[in-house]
């Protein structure tokens, strides 16, 4: 809070999906599954999970809708 009582920072719960590209061994099936879950294109998912990075974020607004619908 600042000196007038207004919040300076807030904590928000959020869901995210990430991948560790170097640990993915079956690129085809993983890409297809993630594209379906994330409501994304196969090309976009493959592009991200083949990145030369140790960690990549995959989530977006659509993943939150999909995950919330899949919960009981």
Notes on the protein architecture:
The protein has a two-stranded antiparallel sheet with strand order 1-2. The protein is mainly α and 72 residues long. The chain contains three helices and two strands; from the N terminus they run βααβα. α1 crosses α2 (42-49). 42% of the residues lie in helices and 6% in strands. The model has no long low-confidence stretch (mean pLDDT 82). It has one domain. The chain starts with 17 loop residues before the first strand and ends with a helix. It has helices at residues 27-38, 42-49, 61-70, and strands spanning 18-19, 56-57.
- Residue-averaged pLDDT: 82
Largest sheet: 2 strands, antiparallel
Number of domains as seen in the coordinates: 1
State the share of residues found in helices, binned by percent.
40-55%
Give the amount of beta strand, in percent: 5-15%
Overall geometry = elongated
Helix/sheet category: mainly alpha
Put simply, the count of helices is 3
Report how far the terminal alpha carbons are from each other.
Answer: 37 Å
Strand order of the largest sheet: 1-2
Unreliable stretches (pLDDT < 50, length at least 5) are: none
The beta-strand count equals 2
The secondary-structure element order is EHHEH
Nearest-angstrom radius of gyration?
Answer: 17 Å
């Amino acid at each position: 809070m600042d000196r007038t009582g207004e919040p300076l920072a807030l904590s928000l719960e959020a869901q995210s999906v990430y991948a560790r590209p170097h640990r993915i061994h079956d690129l085809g099936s993983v890409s297809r599954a993630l594209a379906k879950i994330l409501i994304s294109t196969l090309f976009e998912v493959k592009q991200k999970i083949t990145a030369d990075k140790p960690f990549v974020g995959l989530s977006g607004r659509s993943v939150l809708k999909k995950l919330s619908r899949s919960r009981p």
